[in-house]
Amino acid sequence: MLSYQHAYHAGNLADLHKHALLASALAYMTRKDKPLSYLETHAGRGLYRLDAPEARKTGEAEAGILRAEAEGWLPQGHPLRQALAAIRATRGATAYPGSPLIAGHFLRPTDSAHLAELHPAEHAALSEVAAFATPYRQDGFQMAQAICPPTPRRGLLLIDPSYEIKADYTAIPRQIGLLARKWNVGVIALWYPLLTDDRHLPMLDALAGAHPDALRSEVGFPPARAGHSMIGSGMWILNPPFGLRDEAARIETIFRQRL
After folding, report:
1. Within 13 Å, how many C-alpha atoms sit on residue 8's CB side?
2. What is the mean pLDDT of each run of 10 residues along the chain (259 residues)?
3. Which position among 15, 111, 160, 246 bears the catalytic label?
4. How far from chain centre, in Å, is Cα 42?
5. Which residues line the annotated binding site for S-adenosyl-L-methionine?
6. What gap in Å lies between CA 14 and CA 131, rounded to an integer?
7. Considering only CA atoms, which of 139, 99, 102 is closest in space to residue 118?
8. Alpha carbon distance 32, 235 (integer Å)
9. Do 114 and 150 meet the contact criterion of CB atoms below 8 Å apart?
10. CA–CA separation, 237 vs 156, rounded Å?
11. What is the pTM assigned to this prediction?
């Protein structure tokens, strides 16, 4: 069983980048009176506590979402701020939602959600907090390939692996290629780390060659601790919703100015 536990990293700078773009995309997509599907391949537990021992041990949330909120990085009315406020109103002031609950904030009764999480404890926790969705305890790529094209056909897929399996870097372009052929109207969003050894670059080259019009948004930040190899966050988005390129540019500017 893979050892990655996002509870140690919830609310960090990578989450801020990823969740700001995800919330903005879903806020726009749910303005239209048409149902949509939301899929996630590596959903995690869905809800985290920033006062939990795991979060306190790393301090990554303090350098991430907590600092951003204290310093007003995101403007009033930003979709991520709206989602955080609504979830904390029901889950408590120290709650931090993972991407499933951020999505759940925007999804409507006419929408559908499919969340895959292979880790048994994380899947059990996810099932408790994501009643709006169908949870799957299986490989996320298998789930996505089986469901796509989903019903409703309009929708968004988030791929957010831990990259503990190094083969993910070579497998992901092929997985996305298959999904895009099945679901040519789907918004396919991939999160990836920026690493000191640049092992993510061949994956991005392969994606760019196959999908030259996709959005690629990257932000850099200091390593969380000495010797840590992640120095930034990336989001690659096929078929980005209207306005998301501008939102990505705004977020990138904020990171450059603040860090």
Report:
1. 8
2. 76 97 98 97 96 92 96 97 98 97 98 96 96 97 98 98 91 98 98 97 98 98 92 98 98 97
3. 160
4. 9
5. 19, 42, 99, 117, 139-140, 160
6. 26
7. 139
8. 24
9. yes
10. 10
11. 0.97
Tell me which residue has tokens 């303005």: 31
Query: In this structure, which amino acid lies at residue 231?
Result: I
Residue type for position 2: L
Residue 180 backbone dihedrals phi, psi, to 5 degrees: -65, -35
Q: Is 160 considered catalytic here?
A: yes
d(CA 161, CA 208): 19
Domains of the chain (ranges, CATH numbers):
6-258 (3.40.50.150)
Task: Quickly count: other Cβ atoms within 10 Å of residue 189's Cβ.
Answer: 25
User: Residue 72 is encoded by which pair of tokens?
Assistant: 């007003």
Binding site residues, as ranges? 19, 42, 99, 117, 139-140, 160
Helix (H) / strand (E) element for 190: namely strand 187-195
Instruction: Locate all alpha helices (DSSP H) within the chain, ordered by sequence.
Output: 13-29, 53-58, 60-63, 65-71, 79-91, 99-106, 120-129, 140-147, 168-182, 201-210, 244-258
Pairing verdict, β 134-136 and 112-116: parallel
Encoded tokens for 33: 């009176």
